Amino acid sequence: MSRDEHSNNRERQKNSGEDHQSNDSGGLELSQIVFIGRTFEEYMKMFNLTVDEINGKSILDCPGGACSFSSQARKLGADPVAVDIAYEYEIDELEVKGFQDIEHTMKQMESVQSIYVWDQFGSIQGLKEERTRAITDCIADMRMFPDRYVASVLPDLPFADEQFDLTLSAHFLFTYADRLDVDFHVATIMELLRVTKREVRIFPTVDMSGKRYKHMDALKLILEERGCTVSEEPTAYEFQRNAHTMLQIVKHNRTR
């Protein structure tokens, strides 16, 4: 699922005519998908990662959207795979849609700048440059390694048990708490854990209003009962206000 600051804008600007994306069913039209992503550098901050930590690791980015994490991590010795419902479309189609979405989103940002922290980007133009860099790197990598970009609809993933060393999930779970229920969250996280050997990291831990996910304590208890260590960790990344914490889930036993 492709998702970005466009989503918060849509919550505050109901005059937009574009359908909002959802990942609870298949068969989405391309017009319903917002294909915008974040850069490798943003991922490293969001998930408290270091280059040494990803080197030599198999990493799942779910959902990957138009993010450049895979393209840059691959150059640094990682073995990344991205999965997203959007990848069922042709690369050329996604490229055109992504650049259209960037233009549309930047226009929307004008009236909602106050709900974001601009320390990293400086301005809307700075944000646009970073979003453009992300999709440019992503599309180039998709063309070079098309088999590493897999189409799928959560909560099901077409991967083997414990296929990946680390799984990253950004701006989907918890973010869309108003439309994805608790059962979906639990099923999706259990699926992410199934395909992961050791650790899953989810960013952020708040919904689109900036409030902590209201079922977080119950979710953490479920995971702890299944043998996981679960913690909410502060990060160095904040663009949406109050979205600066990730959920870190470490497996100690097989979680099914």
Which keywords apply here?
alpha/beta; single chain; 256 residues; 8 helices
Summarize the structure.
The chain has 256 residues and is an alpha/beta fold.
What does it look like?
There is one protein chain. The model is unreliable at 9-26 (pLDDT under 50). The chain is globular. By secondary structure, it is of the alpha/beta class. 34% of the residues lie in helices and 16% in strands. The chain has a seven-stranded mixed β-sheet with strand order 3-2-1-4-5-7-6, with helices on both faces. The protein has eight helices and seven strands. The longest helix is centred in the middle third of the chain and has 21 residues, at 124-144.
Topology (SSEs and partners):
Blueprint: H1 6-12, H2 40-46, H3 51-54, E1 58-61, H4 69-75, E2 79-83, H5 91-109, H6 124-144, E3 149-150, E4 164-170, H7 182-194, E5 196-203, H8 216-225, E6 228-234, E7 245-251
- Overall 3D shape: globular
Instruction: Give the fraction of residues assigned to helices.
Output: 25-40%
Radius of gyration: 17 Å
Q: What summary fits the major beta sheet?
A: 7 strands, mixed
Cα end-to-end separation: 24 Å
